[in-house]
Amino acid sequence: MIRFILYLFFFLIVSQSVSSKPLYFGAPNKIIDWKISCKRVDPGSIEKEKNNWTFKTSKNYCLGGDWKQRAEIISYYALSPKVKAKYNFESYFSMKSSHWWPNYNYHEKFDIFQIHDGRNGCAPPLKVNIQKDGKIKLRGDYKKGPGEQCIYDIIKSTGRGKTTIKRDGTEYKLNVLLDFDGNGGFKVKVYINDEHEVSGEYKFKEGQGYIKSRYFAFKHGVYSANIFPYVLNSVMKMERIK
Fold this sequence. Notes:
Number of helices: 1
Number of strands: 15
Distance between the termini: 31 Å
Structural class: mainly beta
Largest sheet: 7 strands, antiparallel
Radius of gyration: 18 Å
């Protein structure tokens, strides 16, 4: 028993030092630990009441990347890439975006959900992006070396979604179903109001020089290339499914 406890303690210490992010031990039933990404945002741009999050326009204060606007939360703990499990991210969300703001496009595209893996540079393994026309698109990159040594847009996606997501306060139900294969890859299916929109797969390839994921952490909010005025309300949860 003592040997098992010592082994468990050693495993957790090594896992955290290697991943540089605390890991869940195994596959938890719920992802419940969320914090503001990049430590600081513009005052009042992220607020929380129980499971209800409100995101508003904020300048991007993060290191790396060149997108200018970011109001996001990230899971404090992360899954090991060796975990084989299925998860459902669910959000009842609505967005209001004013078109009167001078010199800005209120139809700016943005990421509403992402999977990150510890890399610096290149797009992460998954970006669920809402395009300027309101359609959903998936994006993911491989990374081969320092900086922007990337293999772009490698998600094997079924295309773009059918639903047009309006920015007039209309509420939508978003589900992102994730099936992790235990070898650094996953399949993804996205639904709006229980209607299938788009599917894809991120599959790690050994022996081709790609950098392997150190962990899988999750982001939710609004991340955009350009600043635009908006308020996004989201009642969200993330749970393991069978």
